[in-house]
Amino acid sequence: MDRIECSVWNNGGEGWGLKVLGGPTVRRTYFRPEQSPILLELDGSSFPVNIDKRSFWTRGCGELISSDLRGWIVKHQMTTGDRVWLEVLQPHQTFRAIRSQSELPAREIA
Predict the structure, then answer these.
(1) Residue 101 confidence (pLDDT)
(2) Omega before 37 cis (within 30°)?
(3) What contacts 80, CB < 8 A, 6 or more positions away?
(4) Rounded mean pLDDT of the chain?
(5) Per-residue CA distances from 1 to 4, 39, 80, 91 (Å)
(6) Cα(50)–Cα(97) distance, integer angstroms
(7) What does the pLDDT read at residue 109?
(8) Which residues lie closer than 8 Å to 33 by C-beta, 6 or more apart?
(9) How far is CA 36 from CA 13, 56, 93, 96, in A?
(10) pTM for this one?
(11) Class of the CATH-defined domain 3-102
(12) What does the pLDDT average to over 16-28?
């Protein structure tokens, strides 16, 4: 199963999300603006996240932002820079957030 590495992002205030690491190439590989919103599974429940916005596709940005994602980050007491993996459940459409490598099955930890 494909995984996308992300880090917890904060805008310096109340805005929290996940920064997709790997730049525009990774975003073009795993996401498509015409399939927005994507579904992001957080603790077993799915939530929509808009990716059809200019900032997601620019070189320096690439953050997944939603109030549901913010709540998940706060609930799990994560902070800026913490790593999160997105498992690709359905290409370009459905992803599952995993908080750290320790939550992956042992065979997948590098």
Answers:
(1) 54
(2) yes
(3) 7, 8, 9, 10
(4) 90
(5) 10, 17, 26, 10
(6) 16
(7) 39
(8) 51, 52, 56, 57
(9) 25, 11, 8, 16
(10) 0.87
(11) mainly beta
(12) 95
Q: What torsion do the CA atoms of 12, 76, 88, 64 make, to the nearest 10 degrees?
A: -20
What pLDDT, on a 0 to 100 scale, did the predictor assign at position 107? 44
pLDDT in tens, 67-101: 999 999 999 999 999 999 999 999 999 999 999 75
In DSSP notation, the chain reads --EEEEEEEE-SSS-EEEEETTHHHHHHHH--GGGPSEEEEETTEEEEE---SHHHHSTT--EEE-HHHHHHHHHTT--TT-EEEEEEEETTTEEEEE--GGGS-GGG--
